[in-house]
């Protein structure tokens, strides 16, 4: 729900306006990059307009579906409707997800060591998270999440490029 009272309490200086504009520019830049990525992954089979439609529908599906289903299942369907090849649609969505994971795996340590772990993992004034994680607990939650995603990505890379038959055998068993 939109809270008009909270909106009116915001101190609207020119700084706030510039940062709101920067947030909008970053959102547009992200969507343009997604459009470019989907065009590259489809070998430019999608026009800029069709890639715009696919990306916005994909983002919308990701926002409204439960995280366990996610936008990936819907994205396969959306891309299939555009390029009429289910295998290629599935591969495009999987490669896209893999690229997202590789970006995360690469950028998190870079950000952690560049900005400093204390700056990233500190929660100022929010006692609830600090109480739940108790001291260094937030660091361990962070490391567990990172190692989980790293392991998951390594398994996917192995399944795709290493030895897919072993992974198939494991799934069958």
Query: DSSP helix count?
Result: 9
Question: How many E-type strands?
Answer: 0
The biggest sheet amounts to: none
Q: How large a portion of the residues is in β-strands, by DSSP E?
A: under 5%
Radius of gyration: 20 Å
- Poorly predicted runs: none
Please give the share of residues in helix.
Answer: over 70%
Report the average pLDDT across residues.
Answer: 86
Order of helices and strands: HHHHHHHHH
Q: End-to-end distance, in Å?
A: 48 Å
**Content-based structural category:** mainly alpha
Rough shape? Answer: globular
Structure description:
- The protein has 173 residues and is mostly helical.
- The chain contains nine helices and no strands.
- The longest helix is centred in the middle third of the chain and has 30 residues, at 86-115.
- It is globular, with a radius of gyration of 20 Å.
Structure at a glance:
The chain is 82% helix and 0% strand. The protein is an all-alpha fold and 173 residues long.
Task: Itemize the secondary structure elements and their pairings.
Elements: H1 4-9, H2 14-41, H3 48-64, H4 70-83, H5 86-115, H6 117-120, H7 127-133, H8 137-162, H9 164-172
Helix pairs in contact: 2-3, 3-4, 4-5, 5-8, 8-9
Keywords:
173 residues, 9 helices
């Amino acid at each position: 729900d939109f809270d008009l009272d909270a909106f009116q309490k915001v101190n609207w200086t020119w700084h706030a306006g510039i940062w709101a504009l920067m947030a909008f520019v970053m959102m547009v830049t992200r969507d343009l990059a997604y459009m470019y990525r989907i065009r590259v992954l489809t070998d430019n089979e999608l026009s800029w307009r069709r890639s715009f439609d696919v990306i916005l529908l994909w983002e919308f599906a990701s926002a409204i579906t439960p995280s366990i289903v996610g936008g990936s299942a819907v994205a396969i369907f959306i891309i299939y409707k555009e390029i009429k090849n289910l295998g290629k649609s599935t591969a495009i969505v999987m490669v896209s997800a893999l690229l997202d994971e590789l970006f995360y795996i690469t950028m998190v340590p870079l950000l952690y060591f560049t900005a400093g772990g204390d700056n990233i993992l500190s929660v100022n004034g929010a006692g609830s998270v600090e109480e739940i994680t108790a001291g260094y607990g937030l660091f361990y939650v962070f490391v567990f999440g990172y190692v989980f995603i790293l392991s998951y990505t390594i398994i996917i890379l192995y399944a795709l490029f290493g030895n897919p038959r072993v992974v198939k055998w494991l799934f069958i068993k």
